[in-house]
Amino acid sequence: MKLIIAAGVIALIGTLVGTRVFIGFLVRKGYGQFVRDDGPATHTAKRGTPTMGGVAIILSVVLAYAIAHLLNWDAPSYSGLLLLGLLVACGLLGFIDDWTKISHKRSLGLTSRGKLIGQLAIGVGFGVLSLMRPDGSGETPASTQISFIHDIGWLRLPLVVAIVWITFLIIATSNAVNLTDGVDGLATGALTMVFGAYTLISLFQSRQWCSGPTDSAVCYQVRDPWDIQVIAAALAAACFGFLWWNAKPAKIFMGDTGSLALGGAVGGLAIMTRTELLLVILGLLFVIETLSVAIQVSYFKLTHGKRVFKMAPLHHHFELLGWDEVTVVIRFWIICGVSVVSGLSLFYAQWILGQ
């Protein structure tokens, strides 16, 4: 518990103070956001707002994890380091994308192919490493089984297929958060709730941990849950602190540096806590936003130019219908909050019914 509190407090202070310092640096350098010309008219005022705020979030989480372990004189776990590595790797890819936009003074960064290649490399690397180095009980950070609240026994995948599945999850979650990060505070607030949920899940798993292979429904066969909860708490606190500067009117955007990194971390947490399919409920807002883009693109191609929504992702559709940006954000936060509570309720109900 000391580790969780320490990591959370340090990460919160890190983004509250560090983001302010970073905003000053970005303003002096003139590193601002470029806005799509076809977006809502209200977004033109956002042009020039500092971006790449994800740097402050990532550094705060990494420092919080390191300092918390030093303060408690506790060694980091393989799972914890692997999850942080995923966060940093996805953040680096996003940083390259953001820097491309800034250096070329345009709203488009890396090409879709370039970004996908980078995500594939990160996903495969994470998948391979997460299925290596079993602990004393034979448990690896990830599993070759698809999971809901526990691993689903009859859904065991061949090793190569499991790596493909893990890679898909990392790419899907990083892109889903990236698509959601389109209006002030929306993704940041939603991520705070999702990471908070994973803090509670991993905390509960550490208290009901299985020390070896078992078919029990009242304990959890996972790897290093006590360390995963530290990172989840740091992520939640860092996003919460960043929201101070990212709420409308945003003084800074997290950029692809933040959205790809935090989205990848969401996928990594789902994989390591064995809640891969539960993530569909916990992160329902991100699923809805992604589906709106998929529907829009598919319908546009099939009908040669017709659209289902005025604009995708979905939050822009409601803006173009006349909703105020703050109204969109708050209502989407409510959807996220309800889905997070529903997911946590299912998680806890399964434990209650299994006793």
From N to C, what is the helix and strand string? HHHHEEHHHHHHHH
Number of helices in the DSSP assignment: 12
Which regions contain 5 or more consecutive residues with pLDDT less than 50? none
Strand runs, count:
2
- Please, how many domains? 1
Basic shape: globular
Backbone structural class: mainly alpha
Beta-strand percent range: under 5%
Q: Helix content range of the residues, please?
A: 55-70%
The average pLDDT value, as a whole number, equals: 90
Describe the structure.
A two-stranded antiparallel ribbon has the order 1-2. The chain is mainly α and 355 residues long. It is globular. The protein has twelve helices and two strands; from the N terminus they run ααααββαααααααα. It starts with a helix and ends with a helix. The longest helix has 30 residues, at 325-354.
Spell out the key features of this protein:
355 residues; mainly alpha
How are the elements arranged and paired?
Layout: H1 2-29, H2 54-71, H3 78-104, H4 112-130, E1 145-147, E2 151-156, H5 159-180, H6 186-207, H7 225-246, H8 255-272, H9 279-282, H10 284-302, H11 314-320, H12 325-354
Antiparallel strand pairs: 1-2
Helix pairs in contact: 1-2, 1-7, 2-3, 2-7, 2-8, 3-4, 3-7, 3-8, 4-5, 5-8, 5-10, 6-7, 6-8, 6-12
